[in-house]
Design brief:
It contains 14 helices and 20 strands. The protein is of the alpha/beta class and 457 residues long. The chain folds into two domains: 254 residues, Aldehyde Dehydrogenase, Chain A, domain 1, CATH 3.40.605; 188 residues, Aldehyde Dehydrogenase, Chain A, domain 2 (3-Layer(aba) Sandwich). The structure holds nicotinamide-adenine-dinucleotide (NAD).
Length: 457
Amino acid sequence: MPTLAIHNPATGALIDEVAAETAESVAAHFRTARATQPAWAAVPMAERLAIVQRFRALVVRDLEALAATLTREVGKPIAQSRNELNGLLPRLDFFLEQAEGAVREEHVFTGGDMHEEISHAPLGVVANISAWNYPWFVGCNVIVPALLTGNAVLYKPSEHASLTGLAIARLLHEAGVPREVMICLVGGGEVGAALIAQAIDGLFFTGSHATGQRIAQSLAGRLVKMQLELGGKDPTYVRADADPKAAAESLADGAMYNTGQGCCSVERIYVHEAVHDAFVEQFLATVASFKQGDPGDPGTYIGAITRAPQLELLEAQVRDAVAKGAALRTGGRRGPGPGHHFPPTVLTDVTHRMDVMREESFGPIVGIQKVKNDDEAVALMNDTRYGLTAGVYTRDEAAARAVLSRVQAGTVYWNCCDRVSPRLPWSGVGDSGIGLTLGVAGIQTFTRPKAWHLRTP
Ligand code: NAD
């Protein structure tokens, strides 16, 4: 049996070694899930809801230990690991409140002797291949509604968040989900590829555009339902009438929280020339107040860079920007080892000829560009292949709505950023992906509607 070595990205230390899957074991797990899924689908909804309610209680019971594990394997500051786990609870509450209604039979027409209904059947055996940056969020966005709607789940956590993935599965089993219908498959990309090779009924992926594209290619011709939640290059526009201090404080947090490793982290900021200098000054002051260091320290705000290769990408974006005329206002180079560290980095005088304004950074780095008016800001915000989120800061709601209605993004924000709500669908435009999670539609997506045409004799 192969094993997966798990290192702490903040120190480089080996923290664990866990058993990993092979192509053969993945195939065997698939057969198990296939055989047991119908019995799980037959479990009454009330019982499945009670199981998820118990899972919620177990997350609360173990919250401190789970947060410590997340911090050790991902390098997320401990306060932010606790926030992620506490933030999971309202998501679970949303699923608990909405699941039954989302899949209730709908009686849509009765006329003469004809009656029409819609029922919602589980997809069957679904695969969830997931990312490491918010592993509780992105894992449970799929696993929980998929299980509630009667699917079996084969879950491949990121190789950078395997201990958290194993913990999610362990607590679901303890809560009462049969081991055969919720199976955690530890390993890297090769285990994900082996999972896709099975006769799955749905593929729910969260990760980079490059991997998403590879997965779409490997599913080509298979007619399997596929959802891809991919990267972003999330822009925000600060209008002339915005409060530069309030906007700067909010956006510095939106850019640097989770050490900038969020799909909806703010990566590009366009600021009206009237408030540009005041905004930049406040932004730099806010960033300077962020404490970087040991992710285990409750005061730490900037933690580790989880994946080592990202350090080179971030430095390359800075080099490219500076070579093309950008001003490096703070940060710019990796910190000393051991472990992977990068300081908050702010570039001004940037343009769209620079990679930092075009390619996903996925780190604590942001470009700030001066603009003349709303039209220029909208044109620049839309000058991207991504379309996950976009925002605007202004006192004028009508102006905000006008700007946001012209921006191509799955999620838009007025005077806020880097925010996800369980009540709203989470989706992307363009290379940010296809399909959605969250919202009522993010529960129904794990089911297949069946249309009933019934004629009374
Ligand atoms: P990644 O693409 O490197 O890996 C994602 C998953 O795919 C991992 O589990 C990995 O093992 C697996 N994988 C790799 N190669 C594979 C293959 N050939 N076949 C099957 N599976 C394979 O991404 P990551 O570094 O884990 O996550 C960061 C990315 O995720 C960023 O781009 C970020 O924007 C994105 N993300 C998006 C959302 C969203 O909701 N849109 C949320 C979180 C993260």
